[in-house]
Write a structure and sequence with these properties.
homodimer; alpha/beta; TIM Barrel; 6-stranded parallel beta sheet; 20% strand; disordered N terminus
Chain lengths: 450, 450
């Protein structure tokens, strides 16, 4: 407790648990289902997007690894239970049930890094209604955020045509969303991140340059450059637009010699500036010194610099805000349930009929149809057993089986998976202009399915 | 460690520390400044926005309380230091310096809940360059996120004209950003949140209804309503659009009687549906049963329902994405420094001259000018001593003094402060249409200032 102006205010303990990252109605629905005898009915929930953000041609699955961590950490501790009962959010029997809660069902999903389209069933959660309904909010939070970021990042990576991109948007989003954003961007092909916690937690390679404040701290730009070079070596990146770019570049090469690593330009017309600076660097003999550009870049800004002598990009705001689509519009819908808690009871497809937002009942599988050239041409979603052709890929993989996490994989695997999945899409997928999904989703009704 | 498919993958420990929620360049600048002898120079950084999101008339300061928690938790533990040195992000002397790090300077800022305008100096951080530069990313992350959410929320609260709004956007944003969003929305006048962790951590009142999955779980809608009423009482909110709204409302009143708390409509034309449902409820004698509407509402959607018989709104996506402005564009700029580490050395204003992004040197104070009717008419930003008139308000308050947190306050205080600050703005501030800032910012040059 901290004493402030006569009032006691508790110091916040964030904690590591994920169980209260949950909407209140999940717990009250649980309570009503426990009381009513339906809590133990078997249930299948699916995560999908009814559409992609306007004009986008594909989405990217990201957050799967974080979701598995969240499911594992989804336990109610004493403080959380006390909060729930003291505030009469749940009754005592429900709190006792929550105290023993541990997800014991199954989760299947698209591999992290996979591409998705409208109605792709990217996650399937199977369990009792009680245990599966509780995961709704945390699953959607993680997937909606991380998929939005990865989907934007993938377009930027494509626009950069192999030039490396540094993710540097931490300051423009929530401090923990920043860490997840760096992770999602790396899956989608970004080279590095400025975010140190993403380096520590997830092993994303970190990178950085210097801020204007460092130059301003010194008695002159020259002093600032000298200090940076002395400490960080000639391979460092010097920021050259604090005062006058031409003078800064001259000073930089004078101090560092031709082995200067890179210069960063953060303002002005980046294409024009990059050409001028390239000429100047070359004329000074610094032919290997790279040029990094930053400053309100998005996928379109990156594409516009394709012909400019740029060696790398730094992207911030547009990445962490999903470049106009900060959430992936994924929903978590009950698609099947049994009439009884008996594990052998048959499953029944269910769907709401709300105006404009109808859902499609039945547990679904998905197959990416791939032609003889190795190019995807359809996303088949079926309530029956998937029937893949020789080149087709069945898209759902097991992530949790009987409560055990089985789908963890290194982040690099997701990154490689994304590169492969993207290479398989038709060329239209890589257009930045607005258009239809690159691959059409087709439904095949296979009748009810266990 | 978890063993997966032959590979060991570490289970992530999120931890509570905030020190690595930081861009790499802050630590490398620190290292260079330590080596170069400039790290101990006194420095003043300011946080401000060069502009508001297009057409917005005011911004709302939020996140201050979270920032104070983050500053307090900003210590480098052994695992973090090991990460930094093992990856050669910093050298050993810098790591030793970081090990002892504790912010010992001063922070001043606008009160949480205060309104702000372009160039309002909403936060001032004073300390050595070394200690103040490290807070850049975490300060901006927290303020950019929370201010963006509170700024959008405040417009929604205004549009709702006193009708309560439930914040229910957790599923559409990063799971921790969701908690901060609920907090920010509450400051800006939302009544409640669905987010349980925001209830536990910050005391935000929680609320909830039921999902379509609860209805679908049951053999009929009637069974679902019965189960909910039996467990949660007649004051609960029944969701009536899973199948047929008219039938659902009839069933709801039949089961609960006229004391049914509320019904929720989540689809269709909400204005039309609300009128129909109101008539039906009234005809069934349920005159006190409230109508809550949800479904892709933003401030404009809320305003459009002003004449509809709606008793409350639920807002999700548009709130947590800042209703088109998911970040507040706040920057953290060095505006003054000394030439020497000596605490008595005079401060010198500094500013970059980057094309299109020049900054204004000197530590600034701000005064909200208020006329005889109690209406604000100008934001005076000065590098001199503020000279408030009798009704004017000096806007910066002490938050941290010599490293001690002095600015903590209960969340309700920030909420009350926002209501007062908003009431003081001219009526144009409350227009939802695009326009200029409601109050102009005027600079008064007061010469250099300690």
């Amino acid at each position: 407790m901290v004493h402030t102006a006569g009032r006691k205010v508790p110091v916040v303990d964030l904690g590591d648990g994920t169980a209260l990252l949950t909407d209140r109605y999940e717990l009250t629905m649980l309570q009503a289902a426990l009381r009513g005898g339906t809590a133990g009915r078997r249930a299948v929930f699916e995560v999908f997007a009814r559409s992609l953000p306007a004009g986008r041609r594909y989405g990217v699955v990201a957050g799967t690894g974080r979701l598995l961590d969240a499911i594992e950490a989804f336990r109610f501790d004493r403080a959380e239970l006390d909060f729930l009962t003291a505030n009469r959010i749940v009754d005592e029997p429900t709190a006792q049930w929550l105290e023993k809660y541990r997800f014991s069902g199954n989760v299947w999903g698209y591999s992290e890094g996979e591409c998705f389209f409208p109605d792709s069933p990217i996650l399937v959660v199977e369990g009792t209604f009680a245990e599966a309904v509780l995961l709704e909010t945390v699953a959607l939070s993680i997937l909606n955020h991380d998929c939005a970021i990865a989907s934007a990042a993938s377009r930027m990576t494509q626009a950069a045509h192999g030039r490396p991109i540094i993710e540097m948007g931490s300051r423009r989003t929530h401090e923990r969303a920043a860490v997840a954003s760096a992770r999602a961007a790396y899956i989608a092909g970004f080279a590095t991140t400025s975010n140190l916690e993403a380096g520590r937690l997830y092993g994303v390679p970190t990178a950085g340059t210097a801020a204007h404040s460092f130059t301003l701290l010194h008695d002159s730009e020259r002093h600032g450059f000298q200090a940076q070079l002395a400490s960080l070596g000639e391979d460092t990146t010097l920021l050259v637009d604090t005062y006058d770019v031409e003078r800064a570049v001259r000073t930089a090469v004078e101090l560092a010699g031709p082995s200067l690593g890179a210069v960063r330009i953060d303002s002005g017309d980046l294409g024009v500036m990059a050409r001028r600076v390239r000429e100047q660097l070359d004329s000074l003999g610094a032919r290997d010194t790279r040029i990094v550009v930053t400053g309100d870049l998005d996928e379109f800004g990156i594409a516009a610099l394709a012909a400019a002598p740029v060696d790398g990009y730094g992207v911030g705001t547009s990445l962490v805000t999903g470049s106009g689509a900060p959430t992936a519009s994924l929903v978590y819908k009950l698609v099947a349930r049994s009439d009884a808690p008996d594990p052998e009871a048959p499953m029944r497809p269910v769907a709401k009929r709300s105006v404009g937002k109808p859902s499609r009942g039945g547990r679904k599988a998905a197959v990416r149809r791939v032609d003889g050239h190795g190019t995807a041409y359809a996303e088949t979603v079926t309530t029956g057993e998937p029937a893949p052709g020789p080149r087709d890929r069945v898209l759902q993989v097991p992530l949790v089986l009987n409560g055990d996490i089985v789908g963890r994989e290194p982040l690099g695997t997701a990154r490689e998976h994304h590169a492969r999945a993207l290479a398989e899409l038709p060329p239209t997928a890589l257009q930045l202009s607005k258009g239809d999904p690159a691959v059409p989703t087709e439904f095949v009704d296979g009748g009810p399915r266990r």
